[in-house]
Design goal:
The protein has 465 residues and is of the alpha+beta class. Helices cover 20% and strands 32% of the residues. The radius of gyration is 27 Å and the shape is elongated.
């Protein structure tokens, strides 16, 4: 609020020369007031035009606030449930088609198959939940009206710029069609742990419980996002799902009632500074493949553990989330081109995606304190494999990690299976020792580890003496 007041004060100062405004005669026009009124009238006209497209939604049955994807039962500071003041299960939505199709959040409709929809003219309808997509927290509702309904036009979220105006409309705390104005604060927000595929628009336009599912407009009155969450211990931090993602999901829900996504079939992890150095790329440049699942598209296309995926069909990917999101946005059966880096050389691999059967695996990388190789290893035996539930029939198993060693500091532990040393495969303890003997004591070692049948790369650096 302080920032907005400051901006307005600055605008007035720039528009109104001098400081003797109060001393002017009442019948004298204030310099610059016409410009401010024209500016103000833009928002008035915009609000009048878009408010009729915004609806109030209340589930008629089921749990209105199901657990989000990958969310545990513990408390979260972000919006999950309404505070007591908000009407039970209330949320917002926006009409996107004159036939009565309405987009909202999945967590607004919850498990309900039918919802009550209240329009701006106070008329009520029973809406049918056509389809839901928990992975993006979107849902599509259909109402049957005997007339064409006012609807909002979807904008192109790829054209959004940080700093542009953003107008949120919704029903916070049951206050119908509340309009708030702010700016786009940031783009491409991920790792917010609100949904599986995250690419949020961040805005400081005031969003409160009950705004969920409502639209975020640009100054042209086009929907650029669907408001989905707030951080309730902070002011001016709200998140919206980009309109291009909304259109992709709702298009499938409208025609098929469900969403199908592409599947690559790899385990992936981000490139830390240490890993990037070992693979000849910059930190955060691409996504590291740590595992390739047999029989899946990546395996058939020739992708290998240790490849760095740089682009998918020309789209740059620099985090596991961005790779998963791009792949998920491709239609199963579609052929795509992966640009990878392997042994310092770029390659283009054509690949035909299949329908996603499960989420691409991001390795559970051990947290890295700060310290070196202090490992006891031996050949994998059937008994050890059964004890640690290892599917491999040969390999190098870690039997002890010395306290205070660099290996312990990097998070290695008993039962880890060593698959590679400095990009060379190892199948026995002897091979492991031979490779380690070739490594200088001051040189960092790149290991490929399998834990609970999921692989990841890790760099172990010698401890400084």
């Amino acid at each position: 609020m302080f920032r907005r007041v400051t901006i307005i004060a600055l605008m007035i100062t720039l528009l109104l020369p001098g400081t003797a405004i109060l001393s002017q005669a009442k019948d004298e026009p204030i310099p610059g007031i016409k410009m401010l009124e024209d500016f103000q009238n833009v928002f008035i006209a915009l609000a009048d035009r878009v408010k009729p497209t915004v609806v109030n939604i209340s589930p008629l049955s089921g749990n209105p606030h199901p657990t989000r994807p990958d969310e545990g039962p513990k408390e979260s500071p972000r919006e999950r449930d309404r505070p007591p003041e908000a009407p039970p299960g209330s949320g917002s939505g926006v009409i996107i088609d004159k036939r009565g199709f309405i987009v909202t959040n999945n967590h607004v409709v919850g498990d309900a198959e039918e919802v009550e929809v209240r329009l701006s003219d106070k008329t009520k309808f029973t809406g049918k939940v056509i389809g839901k997509d928990p992975d993006t927290d979107l849902a599509l509702v259909k109402i049957e009206a005997n007339r064409d309904l006012p609807f909002a036009v979807m904008g192109d979220s790829s054209a959004i710029k940080v700093g542009q105006w953003a107008i949120a409309v919704g029903n916070p705390f049951g206050l119908d069609r509340t309009v708030t104005v702010g700016v786009v604060s940031a783009l491409g927000r991920e790792n917010v742990n609100l949904s599986r595929y995250e690419d949020f628009i961040q805005t400081d336009a005031s969003i409160n419980p009950g705004n969920s599912g409502g639209p975020l407009f640009n100054i042209r009155g086009e929907v650029i996002g669907i408001n989905t969450a707030i951080i309730n211990f902070a002011q001016g931090i709200g998140f919206a799902i980009p309109s291009n993602m909304v259109q992709s999901v709702t298009g499938q829900l409208m025609t098929k009632g469900k969403v199908t996504r592409g599947w690559l079939g790899v385990g992936i992890q981000p490139l830390t500074a240490e890993l990037a150095g070992k693979f000849g790329v910059k930190e955060g440049e691409g996504v590291l493949v740590n595992e390739v699942f047999d029989g899946d598209p990546a395996s058939k296309a020739g992708v290998q553990p240790g490849d760095v995926i740089l682009k998918v069909d020309g789209i740059t990917v620099d985090t596991p989330n961005s790779l998963a999101r791009v792949i998920a946005g491709l239609v199963p059966g579609k052929k795509a081109n992966l640009e990878i880096l392997r042994d310092g050389k770029k390659k283009l691999l054509p690949i035909e995606l299949v329908e996603r059967k499960d989420e691409a695996v991001t390795a559970a990388i051990p947290k890295r304190p700060e310290s070196f190789l202090g490992l006891n290893v031996q050949d994998l035996t059937p008994d050890i494999a059964e004890r640690f539930k290892i599917k491999d029939d040969k390999g190098v198993i870690v039997t002890k990690v010395e306290p205070g060693s660099a290996a312990e500091a990097e998070g290695l532990k008993e039962g880890d299976l060593i698959k590679e040393v400095n990009r060379e495969k190892v199948n026995s303890a002897d091979e492991f020792k031979q490779l380690m003997e070739k490594t200088k004591k001051t040189e960092a070692v790149l290991l490929r580890i399998s834990r609970e049948n999921r692989a990841f790369f890790i760099v172990i650096k010698p401890k400084e003496k």
